[in-house]
# Entry
Amino acid sequence: MKADLFDQRRLLELQAVDTTLSQLGQRRRKLDADPAFAAANQRLSALTDKAANLGGDLADLDRDIERVEREVELVTKRAENDRARMASGAATAKELEGLQSELESLARRQGTLEDDQLELMERREALETELNETRRQVEEARQVLADAEADRGRRLGEIDTETAEATSTREALAINIPDRLVELYERIHAKQPIAAAELVGRRCGSCRIEKSPADMIPIKSAPIDEVLRCEECGCVLIRTELPQSKPSTLASEDELKKYQ
Ligand SMILES: [Zn+2]
# Structure
């Protein structure tokens, strides 16, 4: 394929924009997979679970406390009834003995229940403190995540803006390059990220492989408007060390010496 060297060189500008677009894509993927974001999400989820569990434990404990309170009420009421019966003077001696023994037993039971109550209240207090602290941490984690989300949104917005700019630059560039050359570039670009690279000395700017002096012979002897391809990586090899105003003829010996 033949194309004006000036047009060929425009492929390098197109390549630069495509490289920018590819970097923008990488930045976007990196943001999507940001470990800090995942960690903030995970922390919030773990703390929310912990708060829910503590809330459940607290509800269980409240039920236990209520149960003990009801039992204390029953024991108190039973003791009151027993004492009333004893004070009524209607009870027989045997009954009085029985009532006395029951009152002693009820007093022991009440003592145990009150110990339980105290222990439960202490546990409740500790649990409530832990739950309040966990709820505070949940709010904190929620804020960290919201900040991370806002930051990601802002960065994605920047990427969107830069992508739109690069895309319009690309369109403007492609319009000014002959269609056949753009088509060739696009075909190569579909297969590999670098479709056009500069020939620097004997080195391909894409694969970085240095051409042997023998490989340089056809390159050196190629007409200036010949579209060259790197035999190693397949990209369009652009000669930038030749003068831009060079007409579409064989390069002079002096100019070709620069490649050696
Ligand atoms: Zn190459």
